[in-house]
Design a protein that fits this description.
Blueprint lengths: L3 E7 L13 H7 L2 H7 L3 E7 L18 H21 L2 E6 L5 H14 L4 E6 L20 H5 L13 H4 L12 E6 L4 H10 L2 E4 H7 L1 H14 L3 E7 L21 H14 L2 E7 L10 H13 L13
Helix pairs in contact: 1-11, 3-4, 8-9, 9-10, 10-11
Length: about 325
């Protein structure tokens, strides 16, 4: 794993339908993400927060879409940042902000991978598939669409060139849906479920985790990434975790991953040496309890970057 890390703050909340995620990047910093990573021997460049790009080509939000011009500006900023980080050779951690930003981070990482002649794989740790399109979303909240967009699914036109509404032009490199693994599903819309199945995305709900075990589901996916010499983007949504241990999210669904399951995933990812970029999304500090969700997310990030169980300080969550 690269020894230089760049933190990219993306304080977007317009994709979520409720306010608070804009405070996410600041909360991660307050919870000590820089200090934790530096303690593990990494050179951390805190690039501070980006601003949404101007989108003069997107002038409205066709029903039922909400805040399309603003979200498109954030997606473009995220995509540009992902491409810049990839060309610079540092490991990017994208601090959200709601999950709509991942339409840009994954698209940008896919461009980086394509230019290196390598496939991009995506591990989506989330209670939701986020595989709706503009045509299928029921809520109109665009944080439910980024994975479908990055996978090149149709249904993102709304009168503009394919992909144009979000990126200002066609999607340069799409992620092969067969290279996507979603872990932790607990809430998927009916049309969205059909799209996931039709696209051939590997998707595991909490019942599969209960019956088979999270390590036995994750290990074959990591083996596929390694066999293909792939780059691996990990997108960690707070609602992947059970709300009892991570309440700071506006889309809570009971029955999420436990503390130990989540740390096991991070430890396996570290051991694999395959991860090339990371999203930390949907943290809403306005809903947190004394910062425990932010601290847990930072703790999980430290596990991804190599902190061992015996090194972990005792904390009260």
């Amino acid at each position: 794993m690269m020894k230089k890390i760049v933190l990219v703050g993306l304080p977007v909340e317009e994709g979520s339908g409720r306010r608070g995620c804009a405070m996410g990047p600041a909360a991660f910093r307050t919870a000590g993400i820089v200090e934790e990573l530096e303690a593990l021997g990494f050179d951390v460049d805190d690039g501070r927060d980006l601003r949404a790009e101007a989108t003069p080509d997107v002038t409205d939000s066709p029903a039922p879409l909400k805040n399309l011009p603003k979200v498109a500006g954030w997606v473009r900023a995220a995509c540009s940042a992902a491409l810049d980080c990839g060309q610079g050779g540092a490991f990017p951690i994208f601090l959200g902000g709601d999950h709509s930003l991942s339409a840009g981070t994954v698209a940008g990482q896919a461009m980086v991978a394509a230019r290196r002649n390598r496939p991009l794989f995506v591990l989506w740790l989330d209670a939701h598939a986020d595989f709706n399109t503009f045509a299928t979303t029921e809520s109109g909240n665009l944080h439910g669409t980024p994975l479908a967009f990055a996978a090149g699914q149709p249904g993102f036109t709304k009168g503009l060139p394919e992909g144009g509404a979000l990126l200002g032009g066609p999607l340069e490199a799409a992620v092969d849906p067969a290279n996507i693994c979603i872990l932790g599903l607990r809430s998927v819309d009916p049309e969205e479920r059909a799209l996931v199945r039709a696209a051939g995305v590997e998707a595991h709900d909490m019942r599969a985790i209960d019956e088979i075990g999270i390590s036995r589901l994750l290990a074959p996916f990591l083996e596929r990434v390694a066999a293909a010499n792939g780059m691996l983007h990990v997108s960690l949504d707070v609602d992947f975790l059970d709300p009892d241990i991570a309440p700071a999210v506006g889309t809570t669904v009971p029955g999420g991953a436990t503390f130990r399951e989540a740390h096991l995933v991070m430890e396996m990812l570290h051991d694999s040496g395959l991860v090339s970029s990371l999203d930390l999304v949907e943290l809403n500090p306005f809903l947190d309890v004394r910062g425990k969700t932010a601290r847990l997310m930072v703790d999980l990030t430290a596990s991804l970057f190599g902190r061992q169980v015996l090194d972990r300080p005792t904390r009260s969550y």
